């Protein structure tokens, strides 16, 4: 079951407490994805990708919304309008069923300011507005305290620690967090 089309009036979401908005992923966000491909950003995700892999990821991010299976957003710091990271959700086959997975990343220069929590909260509202899902899963690395803290702060329930294949062919220890919508 795909996600329904979004309301154009909801294309940009702003959080008044933390000055961040999420904007739909576009062709102009390739450079942001390149910046996010740094070793310090990918240490919990199997390390940096090649330029070809980054370009393919960018194309996948743009196709997700077209296919109706999720949405990727750039995280924009306000009022400067600086690109600070990404957040998104997509369908995934997990333990024999389709689930809605969520993931995010904030560039190192912007970490520690609550931007990830604010951006993920806005993305959760985007999923909720779709009305097509009852739960969201997040699978941060077990050794990634910042991403696990985002899950705790936003009311996700820790299901347990799991072995997770990411990227394909590489296994890592993750926490399975679930949020009921």
Automatic annotation (TrEMBL):
InterPro entries according to UniProt: Acyl_CoA_acyltransferase, GNAT_dom, N-acetyltransferase
GO CC field: cytoplasm
Entry keyword set: Acyltransferase, Transferase
Pfam families from the UniProt entry: Acetyltransf_3
Key word Electron transport present: no
Claim: Mitochondrion is one of the keywords in the record: no
Gene Ontology molecular function terms on file: protein-N-terminal-alanine acetyltransferase activity
Recorded superkingdom: Bacteria
Domain N-acetyltransferase: 20-177
Assigned protein family: Belongs to the acetyltransferase family. RimJ subfamily.
Record protein name field: GNAT family N-acetyltransferase
